[in-house]
Design a protein that fits this description.
Blueprint (H helix, E strand, L loop, with lengths): L4 E4 L9 E6 L8 E2 L6 E6 L2 H16 L17 H16 L2 H38 L4
Antiparallel strand pairs: 1-4, 2-3, 2-4
Helix pairs in contact: 1-2
């Protein structure tokens, strides 16, 4: 594995290859994203496998609040590129020491993420049903 390549996201630049985004501002700093937002970094990877590994590792670090100790700023907390890179690299070294455990964790994260999406979809259907019942009963 090579050195991690994390850069500031620029909407004017066209990124090619394998990459994902990391939120850089706010209390959710460090959260990996599939699509860009104005306040994020881009993590450029050499392969799809490396991208998936780094994405889910970053996802786990974000959920464990590992980036919180690196946040700076008093009004809007932010994460610097070097802090994100160091935390991710340090965790990557530890994770690759036990690849079996890492793969099991990634698979569990993926299952939990899909389950969370399913629950969110069900909650939205419940909200829509409530709204439809209210409209149908002509209470407006």
């Amino acid at each position: 594995m090579r050195t991690l390549q994390i850069k500031s996201f620029s909407k004017d630049q066209n990124y090619q290859g394998h990459f994902f985004f990391i939120l850089s501002k706010g209390m959710n700093s460090g959260k990996p994203l599939k699509s860009p937002c104005p306040n994020c970094f881009v993590c450029i990877c050499q392969s799809e496998q490396e991208k998936e590994l780094l994405y889910w590792l970053s996802f786990g670090l974000w959920h464990a609040k590992a980036y919180h100790s690196h946040l700076r700023g008093s009004v809007i907390p932010f994460l610097t590129i070097s802090d994100a890179q160091q935390q991710l690299a340090k965790s990557l070294i530890k994770a690759t020491a036990n690849p079996q455990s890492l793969q099991e964790s990634i698979q569990l994260f993926q299952k939990l993420d899909s389950l969370e999406a399913l629950y969110e979809k069900n909650l939205q259907l419940i909200r829509d049903t409530r709204r439809a019942m209210f409209y149908r009963r002509s209470f407006l």
